[in-house]
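Lab manual, section 2.4: Encoding a predicted structure.

Procedure: take the sequence of the chain (103 residues), apply the prediction step described in section 2.3, and record the output as structure tokens. A sample record is shown.
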Amino acid sequence: MTTCSVEGCPRRVLARGVCKKHYSRLLRYGDPSGPKDHRGAPRTISDDTAKELRAIWERHAPGPKRCEMPGCDQARRIRGLCLYHRAQLQSLDRRLSDEERGA
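Recorded output:
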């Protein structure tokens, strides 16, 4: 049995030297490693929102129980952000990674 050529993946090869999971990512994104999570929030957010999200993410410390994004009253879940704003930040990170790869 031949294993997937992606480092650390023990799955059996389906096609092009990769397993089913990595083959799907290869077809969808052109790269078998692809994004790890495709469920995120909308892909377009303003630069100001992105800067504010990043600042909240970087400075988070235990404190208020609500999302730190101004105007949001959702419960804080991850490092000061609600699930919606955390998903927006992840989407931004993926978009920036795509730009770095030249996608």
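Check your result against the sample. The two ends are 33 Å apart (CA to CA).
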